[in-house]
Design goal:
elongated, disordered C terminus, six-stranded antiparallel β-sheet, 39% helix, alpha+beta, single chain
């Protein structure tokens, strides 16, 4: 009987030691927010319009420059509300960290980022990018149009380099797309005013 208790005690100790050896980020996989919850948080007062942006050649070229690869789809769905400079848009995109996609939600108001949320994380490392201390760094940043770079620095996370790069690239691409949508909307409005 005492050998059974000793074996059980060793087994418990082995389980505790094994759980301590698992990297923290491996435990970080999962869904943190549904797209519906993200959109409800992003547009609390009025429901947004769902729109699609078809990826013309110039958008595909910019995507390659920003993401370092071709965007996989023919169009991108986004949500928006408001008018002119106060226009708010939300973008939900997937970007691969090391080997698996990270689902990232980004809200842009005017020309700057209002919030970044990691909706789903599938990688075995780098889940720290979902933490508020990391995503808060994006708030208020805009895009330097000449280089498609963020207007401020984002501190990296040791062991999460590829996940950090994925979130940064997605933020840059969302800012680019937001500017494109607003500029096209303003051009359409000006054209409508000029026509009799």
């Amino acid at each position: 009987m005492s050998t059974l208790f000793a074996t059980m005690k060793r087994l418990k100790l082995a389980c505790v030691l094994l759980s301590c050896l698992l990297p923290f980020s491996a435990l970080g996989k999962g869904v943190y927010m549904t797209p519906e919850a993200f959109l409800a948080e992003s547009f609390p007062s009025t429901p947004p319009q769902i729109e699609s942006l078809w990826l013309r050649d110039e958008i595909r070229d910019a995507a390659k420059q920003i993401l370092n690869h071709a965007y996989p789809g023919m169009r991108i769905r986004y949500w928006r509300s408001g008018e002119g400079a106060n226009q708010r848009s939300a973008w939900i995109m997937n970007e691969v960290g090391k080997t698996r996609p990270i689902t990232i939600g980004i809200v842009i108001v005017g020309d700057h980022i209002e919030r970044v949320r990691i909706l789903e994380f599938r990688e075995s490392r780098g889940a720290e990018v979902r933490m508020a201390f990391f995503t808060r760094q994006f708030v208020g940043l805009s895009l330097q149009t000449d280089k498609h770079q963020l207007s401020g620095n984002i501190d990296g996370i040791t062991g999460a380099t590829l996940s950090v790069k994925a979130v940064k690239k997605t933020a840059r691409f969302a800012l680019f797309l937001h500017q494109l949508v607003i500029n096209e909307g303003l051009a359409d409005a000006e054209q409508a005013v000029q026509q009799p």
